[in-house]
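To whoever picks this up:

The nightly regression suite flagged Roadblock/LC7 domain-containing protein as changed. Nothing in the input moved, so I suspect the structure step. Input below, exactly as stored in the fixture:
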Amino acid sequence: MIQQRGNFDWILKQLADGVPGVEMIVVLSADGLRLARYGGEPDAADRLAAACAGVQSLASAVAVELPYGEGEMKLVMVEFDGGYFYLMQAGANAYLAVLSDVRCEPGRMSAMMRDLIVRIGSHLTSPPRRNGQTV
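Regenerated output under the current build:
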């Protein structure tokens, strides 16, 4: 069920087990490359990672319009008819995305995501790439 680079299987499963309704968890780079996943199909995880790159870019562009802060996206949450989408900054050039159904309580999910990132944030970084190669 887990496909990743590195050994994130236990920690992503722990997040999924800690909050009811989790459908898919994806760790991604800022440019939309899937680094790890739990749940869902690989192709769906790749599509979600690519979409998340656009969402984080949009959120960061909006954030710079605030008079305070540095314009960095911390958390985006979207509620849909059938559930929720969460995207949280997880480290340098890395993000944590979760799709859940309506059983998921948003406050609990964001707290669990934040706790996970605090515990392993230094491992959830993605080095910059140029022409598809790590620099």
